Amino acid sequence: MPFRNLKYSYEVLSYGPSVKNLPRHTWQVDGEHGKVKFMAGLQADKEEMWLCRLEFLPNSSYVMKTGRINTFPEGNELYTKDLLAENLWVDIKRHLASSNHDMVFYMLEREYENHFKATL
Q1: Which of these, 38, 7, 34, 4, lies nearest to 24 by C-alpha position?
Q2: Which of 4, 6, 17, 58 fits a disulfide with 62 by CB distance 3.0 to 4.6 angstroms?
Q3: Which of 4, 12, 41, 15 minimizes the C-alpha distance to 26?
Q4: How many domains does one find in the chain?
């Protein structure tokens, strides 16, 4: 499946004068049925404690094709797989350290294919 709009962004967030310089990484892969987005951000006041999130976001053609606004049988409109995100972060962090974003995108493309193929 061809993927488009492979996006990576890095931000440094601040929340007031006491919470500053929190890094956040975001990768996104767009495909025929929607998007997969992975985010990892350092939590305030917790050294090396990363909050990770994996989102599967269906597009309107997916909704029209399936008649469902969500991509999961349990009925969540926006499903976040926290455990999978944490497991992915172990490998993604290693690839990030070597600036290998192509491998991160490859991992997310596989998650996209596994997820959307299973729900069609």
Answers
A1: 38
A2: 58
A3: 41
A4: 1
